[in-house]
Specification:
about 700 residues, alpha/beta, TIM Barrel, Rossmann fold, Immunoglobulin-like, nine-stranded mixed β-sheet, 19 helices, 31 strands, disordered N terminus, GH, GHL6, Beta-galactosidase trimerisation domain-containing protein, Class_I_gatase-like
Amino acid sequence: MPAMSPDPARLLRSPEWYRDATRWTQLTLAEDDPIKFDVDEWIDVFRRTGSNAACLSAGGYVAYYPTKVPFHYRSKFLGDTDPFGALVDGARGLDMHVMARVDPHAIHDDAAKAHPEWVAVDAAGNPRRHWAFPEAWVTCAYGDYNMEYMPEIVREIVREYDIDAVFANRWQGHGICYCEGCARRFFDASGLALPQAGNSEDLAWRAWVAWRRERLTTMVVEWDRAVQAIRPNASFIPNMGGASLMEFDLETIKAHCPFLVVDHQGRHGVEPVWMAGRNAKRIRATLRDRPVILITSVGPEEPVHRWKDSVTTGPEMTTWIADGAAHGMLPWFTKFNGVIPDPRWIEPVAEGFDLHARLEPALTTTEPACEIAILDATTTLRMHDWNSRDAAEADEKGFCHALVEAGLAFEFVSDHAMTDEMLDRFKVLILPNALCLSDAQCAVISAWVGRGGNLIVAGESAMATEDGTPRDECGLAPSLGTRVISAPRGPVKNTYVEVCGDHPVNAGYEGAARIIGGIRLVGIEAGTGADTPFLYVPDFPDLPMEEVYPREAATAPAVVVRQTPAGGRVAHIPWNIGATYWEVQAKDHQRLIENTVRWALGGPSMVEISGKGILDVGVRQGKTEMLVSLVNLTNPMMWKAPIHEIYPVGTQNVSIAMKGGETNVKAYLPIAGCAAKVTLRDGRAIVTVPQIDIVEAVHLTWEE
């Protein structure tokens, strides 16, 4: 069962050309590249990495071709050359797909003087110089520059060059623009003045978020129409900039974006490796059927100390690519500057692309098939700007990491795209802290529980409506069988929860009477027939040390679990266990999350892994096949880039639940390139994986 790659020539220039564009090279040129870089060297890079598609700098801030559009700044080193055209011809000579990159986020002095309405304005009324290069000006993303002028450049590129699509970088703007045009358009749409800051409680801010979404969505439509008016099989592909589609109208994205590009180029700060695969899951939570690409930088991703023309370690690059690929993301690497003073990135990228190529045949014929879903709380996250969004996602990230440590595969479901059919794919739905949910969204979840679904609700989930208005009661209270008796409070210090009774949710704490509690707490009351495996220990001081002792007995529920009339199981954890675990990494919290999920499942997961190490597990299924991907995260640099070297893990036993009636069951290890022995026992297929370096998978096939 050797790895097979699709034939790029098969779909060249057809309406579905993108389905064979599965491994991408992006070259972002520097202004002096026309006289410094070597086109043939880059054609060789295309070959060496096994790329079948390329995204190449064309224009916008700097034109790398002989543009005729007024105020479209040509590279001062261009002369009579056409580096973009030469790269396009070279890629097409290899039967590669080609996308032209444009960047509209900045302009030069001549354009700014001729068209001051193109320049973004800050809150003080000053035109915005570029924060990193003050000789340039930041453009207004929501007005005529993007809506009228950039389509002229797009049409010129599409008309003059043999390309499949136009890709835009940094096109969404950089915060609120206070130019006259934005102020007027926003007032006409909302009747409000532009907000002064991102504040989820500010009506103007919430209106601006919605208005910005409408403007960006309109831009996607207009640019796509400009492309297709000239090349009907081509598309405009916006760089999504992150892992969620909350900034766009979904129906428009479905109509105009045949595939999606996520710009999460690598890790910075404290960020685990599994974040690569999380990108795929979050996009699938909204648009399940679209190909999704993950951009990986060959350099370190540090937002404060930026070294964009540098090289990170090979193991970091390859592992980031592999984790995304194992969860269904198509790999794309980006190199800034066409000169290659440090070529150490080429082989790691080639290795990552080869790992994807080995997994690709099975990835193509299967789709995600997990039992566990985490709710992607887009309704809540839309209330936050980029500065506060990371903290708003802490609860979800804590649950993700707890499940990764448990070896449990999981997916996401977007509350923005939630349907009965989508929920019915899963056995367990987790709401880590989905604060804002509409009555309709709560009704969809409650109906699923009424059909026997198993629900875990944590933090302040459903304690506010879709516009942020607080509720007196949790919107899912009837399904949970609990009642809120005191409003959320926090941050609090020195809190604890007490182990109460004998229940699967509090198993594994032998000898411990209590464990660390949360930082934000909601007071609840348990209904009839519920169990309370943990109780809140009433607050007590953390100083002076002589005063650090509880004054009262623990009586209020800190975890409530019950079985529903439909046979399902529900759990309510009314404190921010996810965010607390993400921040503190207390093993007791990971155990509580894992225990609750396994109790909700009511039995073994469809895939169980046993063996030393931490693995990011993915599960995909076809009619007569299953793919279990195993990414090795066992590394001292799992939490902090870059990985310095790979630490292989030894034997892993993979146990896969079978439906019954399967015959001729076989297993293949795509990375090792060999068959594996299958043992059928108690309705499960057992496969042993002898070693995993970066990634391995078990491709199980059978006959019915």
